[in-house]
Amino acid sequence: YSVEPYDVIFNFGTPRGLRPGGEGSSNTYSINAGLSYDLTPEATVFANYSQGLQLPDIANSANSLDPGVPLPGSLFVEPIDVEAIDIGIRGFSGNFSYAASVFYSRSDLGEAINLTGAGLGERVRSPQRNWGMELSGSYRASEKLSLSGSLSLQEGEFDRSDDGNFVALNSRTVPPPQLRLQADYQLNAETTIFGSLFASGRRAKAFEEGQDFFEPESYAVVDVGLVYEKDRFRLSAQITNLLNEAYSPVAQSSFIPGRRREGPGRALTITASYKF
Fold first, then answer.
1. pTM
2. What angle do CA 265, 270, 273 make, to 5 degrees?
3. Rounded CA gap, 57 and 113, in Å?
């Protein structure tokens, strides 16, 4: 990276003043290994170990420095090192296929936002750990009907003071439990209708430990649609948020207390295309 001298126009909690910038680079090697074993012709267990390394967001790292502090040698631009393991099983039985896995990852020098109150957040480089599980499956109920779904459960913590006391990562970094269901039905050779459900659960840990300004609420959103294709013509129609559910997606929520963005309401989208 290479950054010219700069000043911060606006950044929570960081004073104005000239920073000298600087340039630098990082390099290392990583190890990745995997093992799989067929329990039966229909079921396979697997285990993977991986290491990863990436530079943090240089712009945000630069904004976190005080005036007069150069980028090279700063903890904020040190690479994020991660090692992870995941163990699971995948397979099929007749028209049903499935996969299930658990994972754990850790970093001696992760990157997180520590909320300090009044909407202020400070970038922290400290130990971090994440874990969770994922389930997925699909079922071909008939020649015309297909069903699928997935469930994701995640959690994560960081040691904000590097003293061995971990607290929860905010819910924009670690989302609440998420469930997805999908059904597709082929009416005829040209027409398919579909419906999907996305449900997000509650996550209290980050709120209780001061890393969320509000506790994410559970909600469910239903979408339905239709696709018609014949020769070179394609027509699709979709209604998103069919039940006009009022909800606040965690990914669109602000760190500022009391400022929560609502998700989009019911909407109809129609698209037609023709390939020449």
1. 0.84
2. 150
3. 13
8 A C-beta contact, residue 157 and residue 206: no
Report CA dihedral (171, 131, 30, 72) to the nearest 10 degrees.
Answer: 30
3-state secondary structure the chain: CEECCECCCCCCCCCCCCECCEECCCCCCCCEEEEEEEEECCEEEEEEEEEEEECCCHHHHHHCCCCCCCCCCCHHHCCEEEEEEEEEEEEEECCEEEEEEEEEEEEEEEEEEEEEECCEEEEEEEEEEEEEEEEEEEEECCCCEEEEEEEEEEEEEECCCCCCCCEECCCCCCCCCEEEEEEEEECCCCEEEEEEEEEECCCCHHHHCCCCCCCCCCEEEEEEEEEEEECCEEEEEEEECCCCCCCCCHHHCCCCCCCCCCCCCCEEEEEEEECC
pLDDT tens string 86-103: 999 999 999 999 999 999
- For residue 115, give Cα distances in angstroms to 50, 59, 176: 30, 19, 18
Q: What are the tens digits of pLDDT across the range 218-266?
A: 999 999 999 999 999 999 999 999 999 999 888 766 555 566 778 899 9
Segments of the chain scoring below 50 in pLDDT: none
Task: Look at phi and psi of residue 68 and say left if phi exceeds 0, alpha if psi is from -120 to 50, else beta.
Answer: left
Say which residue the tokens 């090192």 belong to.
Answer: 81
